[in-house]
Specification:
By secondary structure, this protein is mainly alpha-helical. Helices cover 53% and strands 11% of the residues.
């Protein structure tokens, strides 16, 4: 097991493995499947959309909200359906990192997606968006940790 896979929470590792075993256009189809599975924002968050943070490094409007419940992270994304690859990537990150501890989120290597071999199906610009979304999720996890430590 590599250092990168050792740092991944089990749900995210399972997703990485699914992509690793997919070939060529199957990878893109899998990404689009995650896009379709992205849950809508909960009503309480739709009413407070202004509290969501924008990932400005992405060309697509990506908004994310995170909370810590019982020491575990929950991530919510709002991304237009017209951007299915970005939606798919955010959806797989949310699925793979929801219920992880902030420490587990922070340990995910920035290049963990290289094991998914997406370079053949995504443009360099989209790959940069992948880095930006994960980096933003890590900032939110770090902030949640600081708030929890400050409250203790």
């Amino acid at each position: 097991m590599s250092d990168a896979s050792a740092a991944l929470p089990p749900k995210l590792q399972a997703i990485v493995d699914d992509f690793r075993y997919a070939e060529g256009s199957e990878k893109l189809e899998l990404l689009l499947e995650y896009s379709r599975r992205m849950p809508p924002l909960p009503a309480w968050l739709q009413e407070r959309h202004e509290q969501m943070e924008q990932v400005h490094e992405c060309m697509t409007p990506v908004f994310v909200h995170a909370e810590q419940r019982d020491g575990r992270m929950q991530f919510y994304f709002d991304i237009p359906p017209e951007s299915p690859t970005v939606r798919g990537y955010a959806a797989l990150l949310a699925e793979g990192l929801n219920d992880a501890t902030p420490e587990e989120v922070l340990r995910v290597p920035a290049d963990f997606h290289s094991a998914m071999e997406l370079e053949g199906v995504l443009s360099p610009r989209r790959l940069n968006g992948i880095y930006a979304i994960l980096a933003h999720m890590k900032r939110l996890a770090a902030r949640a940790m600081e708030q929890a430590n400050g409250a203790a």
